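Sharing in case it's useful to others searching the archive later.

Someone asked me privately for the predicted structure of Anti-anti-sigma factor, so I'm posting the question and my answer publicly. Question first, with the sequence:
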Amino acid sequence: MTNQLSPRYPRTSRRLFSHSHSPANTSEFVRGNLRIRRSTLRPGTRVLYVAGEIDLATASLLDLAVQDSEHARAMVVDLSEVGFMGFAGVDVLVRAAERAEGRLHRFAVVVSSRPTERVFGLSDAYARVSCYPRLDTALRAVARRTDL
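And my answer, the predicted structure tokens:
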């Protein structure tokens, strides 16, 4: 990929918006201090493993990764490796949960790190998003709901 400027985002390199489609069912999204790895564990269930910092500058990448995975009947966003999370990231996840509910899809978030617990606690996100302390618990919850 060349380092040309994107016509839609003139000050941003195209590399920031690119993501590779690796073999099988894994992709990676990277921008600055944020890395999102997408994986399909079983048909219809997508997991986004998020590591780094989610702030105003990187929340759009999280939104892109979530929207790119919304066709799955169940999605889990694992925030256990997030070192900082701002309200822009919470807003992305709340909107994603609302869209999933409107489509009758399942959406869950793993909130286990101190920064994510803090920002979810300061907002009303716990009331609007299905949150779990561990990935295995979240996966079981979305699997139970999709088996109905």
